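Need a sequence for this fold. Nothing fancy.
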């Protein structure tokens, strides 16, 4: 097997899985960091992977504890590029510090610490969020998540400023929806951010408002993989967002699937919006 050139974290997640598919399709030899053997089995069992992957282009490394120092030392050995996506989703928990905040924050700072010791690393593309630099109202389950995004982005900025690493870091903000290639049933489709968008067409009324600035997962994955190229200067942020009103979703469904609406398969829900968007013109120009 050829030596892996690209490490991807978070490849079992919604965004990370699409990035993995795009990176493999682009010809990269990938090492995916997973928490357990069952996660690698989950990836390899997916039909999209089986239709695409040459067995010598994808390998795995298990990292059961990303919070310990040196967690990424072995994972980074020999690779030249990293796409770091791994981060918990927001949800209510009795231990937000250890379940949400620390895996996002410490997981990233540990990866950067290992990268500083790995001379082969040329570029790190880190997935941030539009939430990392936006004042937001308070909602249950969101505060630890928002804090993790803000503190992680600040930590990355501090590393760049203080350590002046030889590798580049590019941050990719975004709030993401779209087709979930890893979903093989309805339950898994509704497990992530898509559940918020689908609420508008399935009669649901979520209590938590959603951002108007959103992005399609295909665009987010594409920009991550393109950002690995040397022609794009590092140390900058590329926004991948567009303003969208959630209530428009049902009218689009009504237009294209009138019979399904008539039969009650799709029913109009409500999804409150609040205006947060990020200028993506620089990304479009690049």
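Here you go.
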């Amino acid at each position: 097997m050829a030596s892996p050139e690209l490490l991807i974290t978070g490849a079992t997640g919604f965004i990370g899985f699409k990035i993995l598919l795009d990176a493999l399709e682009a010809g990269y030899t990938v090492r995916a960091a997973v928490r357990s053997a069952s996660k690698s089995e989950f990836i390899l069992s997916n039909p999209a992977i089986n239709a695409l992957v040459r067995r010598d282009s994808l390998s795995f490394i298990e990292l059961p504890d990303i919070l310990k120092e040196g967690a990424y030392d072995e994972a980074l050995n020999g690779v030249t590029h990293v796409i770091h996506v791994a981060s918990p989703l927001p949800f209510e928990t009795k231990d937000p510090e250890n379940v949400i905040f620390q895996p996002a924050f410490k997981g990233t700072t540990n990866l950067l610490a290992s990268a500083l010791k790995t001379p082969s690393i040329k570029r790190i593309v880190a997935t941030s969020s539009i939430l990392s630099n936006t004042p937001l109202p308070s909602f249950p389950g969101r505060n630890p998540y928002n804090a993790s995004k803000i503190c992680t982005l600040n930590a990355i900025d501090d590393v760049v400023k203080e350590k002046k690493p030889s590798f580049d870091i590019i941050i990719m903000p975004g709030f993401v929806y779209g087709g979930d290639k890893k979903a093989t049933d309805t339950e898994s489709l509704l497990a992530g951010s898509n559940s918020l968008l689908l609420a508008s067409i399935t009669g649901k009324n979520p209590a938590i408002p959603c951002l108007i600035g959103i992005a399609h997962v295909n665009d987010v994955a594409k920009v991550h993989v393109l950002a690995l190229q040397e022609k794009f200067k590092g140390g900058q942020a590329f926004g991948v967002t567009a303003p969208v009103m959630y209530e428009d979703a049902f009218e689009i469904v009504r237009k294209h699937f009138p019979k399904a609406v008539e039969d009650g398969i799709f029913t109009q829900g409500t999804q409150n919006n609040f205006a947060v968007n990020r200028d993506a013109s620089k990304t479009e120009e690049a």
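For context: The chain has a mean pLDDT of 84.
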